[in-house]
Amino acid sequence: MRRLMRYHRRVGRIQESGGLGGSEITGECGEFGNDGTERRPSGMEVLGVPGASVTPGRVASRVNWVGSARTSHPENETLMELDPRPATAKNPPERFTGDVWLDSIAAPRDPRQRMLVAKVRFAPGARTAWHSHALGQTLHITQGVAWVQGRGEAKIVAYPGQTLYCPPGEEHWHGASPDSFMEHLAMIDLLENATSSTTWLEHVTDEDYLG
Q1: What number of CA atoms fall less than 13 Å from residue 28's CA on the CB side?
Q2: Interatomic CA distance for residues 201 and 199, integer angstroms
Q3: What domains, with CATH codes, occur in the chain?
Q4: N or C: which end of the chain has fewer CB within 10 A?
Q5: In the chain, count of helices (H) and strands (E)?
Q6: Where are the beta strands (DSSP E) in the chain?
Q7: d(Cα 102, Cα 118) in Å, to the nearest integer?
Q8: Cα–Cα distances in Å, from 178 out to 28, 93, 98, 144?
């Protein structure tokens, strides 16, 4: 349940730990920014910790001016974290044709988690080798024109905003059209033995790519 909270300038102290650069904000929540100018973001709310509130003089743990404020958590709970930006990696030619770059977005953090997410960018004409995923794969196109094809199936042309699902074990490839860069989010669930989650096969020939 969400409760809209408002604090008076003389007692409100909020410590911002994310999008405003770690600066302290004093003033009425949702009314004044860290530069002292008036700001009126919509919906400055305290989110979902049962019984939580910000009392006079207490320091809240997080503020998000585009959405909401989060109150202090019990000491045994872990707060959200802003991950450092990983370096962009060039994908290996053994598994890709042409220039392909990968940015890691999410990976398992404890044994209960399995999802792996990456942003992958393909130069025109670049594509993966044939491959399959033990637990399937979801592709969400964010830029350009994507070509995706399963073994023995018709080629699919996909555009930004469209999502494709490749079932477990299906051999397929995906890449950019010949005249357009392409970017997609690739999402898979990992097996307990992560290295067995993807099986890489032969390269996609120009004949198969253009066919």
Answers
A1: 9
A2: 7
A3: 1-79 (no CATH), 89-210 (2.60.120.10)
A4: N
A5: 1, 20
A6: 3-4, 13-15, 24-26, 45-46, 59-60, 62-63, 69-70, 89-90, 96-97, 100-106, 115-122, 127-128, 131-133, 137-144, 146-150, 156-158, 163-166, 172-176, 182-189, 198-200
A7: 7
A8: 55, 18, 11, 11
Q: Model confidence over 14-59: pLDDT tens digits?
A: 333 333 333 333 333 333 344 444 333 333 222 222 333 333 333 3
Cβ atoms 43, 68 nearer than 8 A: yes
Do 36 and 24 contact (CB within 8 A), yes or no? no
Q: Beta strand pairing status for 156-158 and 89-90?
A: unpaired
- Distance, C-alpha 169 to centroid of its chain: 25
Strand partners, 166: 137
Report the distance separating Cα 183 and Cα 146, nearest Å: 8
**Rounded distance between C-alpha atoms, residue 14 and residue 31, angstroms:** 13
Phi-psi region of 210 (alpha: psi -120 to 50; beta: other; left: phi over 0): alpha
Quote the tokens at residue 76: 């045994």
152-181 pLDDT tens trace: 999 999 999 999 999 999 999 999 999 999
Q: Tokens standing for 133? A: 């995923």
